[in-house]
Amino acid sequence: MVAYKIITFLLDVVAGLIGGACLLRLYMQWQRIPFSNPLGRFVFAITDWIVLPLRKVLPAVRKFDTASFVAVVLVELAEFTLLWLISGRPGGPEILLVLTLFGVIRLTISAVIGLMIVYAVLSWVQNDSVLSDLIDRLAAPLLRPIRKIVPLMGGVDLSPLVFIVAMYVLLMLLDPLQAAALSL
């Protein structure tokens, strides 16, 4: 039991790192943010091995990098396939597809929560770095709708907090949906 938890944790960390980097690559390309910065080079270093071969058969659709998206799906599918094989639980490939779908959604939500936490922390300090500007460019489109509703409170921008709370509520709503989908 402990060994299974350790393996699950390690697979989750590796899949989260690679899948999250693929999601970041997809989002940075969507936002047309150059990769000529330390974060962009890091993303390329982690994802090129899976994205570049996929790009040969999956061209981008307008601004949407299909190869990066499929890479995220494949990483999540690999994680849940390994866990399914190790656990020996009953069920067929349809369970893996459901788990993969929810895994991609959870990874996306976790990634944007992480982005908002980094954005909030960097906003508290006077920082004129390339990384700070990059994080601001990544977070701003996600916060724009919230900023229209939530005004500054005493000069403090609460939109990242509202965004993070909303994402956690969304994660809570996913649990019963996933349980219902797996019980079908």
What distinguishing features does this structure have?
mainly alpha, 6 helices, 0% strand, 184 residues, single chain
Task: Provide a brief overview of the structure.
The chain has 184 residues and is mainly α.
Give a structural overview.
With 184 residues, the protein is mainly alpha-helical. It has one domain. The protein is built from 6 helices and no strands. Helix 4 packs antiparallel against helix 6. The longest helix has 31 residues. It is globular and about 55 Å long. The two termini are 27 Å apart. 22% of the residues are buried.
In whole angstroms, how far apart are the ends? 27 Å
> Please, how many domains?
1
- Indicate the low-confidence ranges by residue numbers: none
* Percentage of residues assigned to helices: over 70%
Structural class: mainly alpha
Order of helices and strands: HHHHHH
Number of helices: 6
Number of strands: 0
Beta-strand content: under 5%
Report the radius of gyration as a whole number of Å.
18 Å
Average pLDDT level: 93
Described by the principal axes of the CA atoms, the overall outline is globular
Question: What's the SSE blueprint?
Answer:
Layout: H1 2-30, H2 38-55, H3 66-87, H4 93-123, H5 130-149, H6 159-183
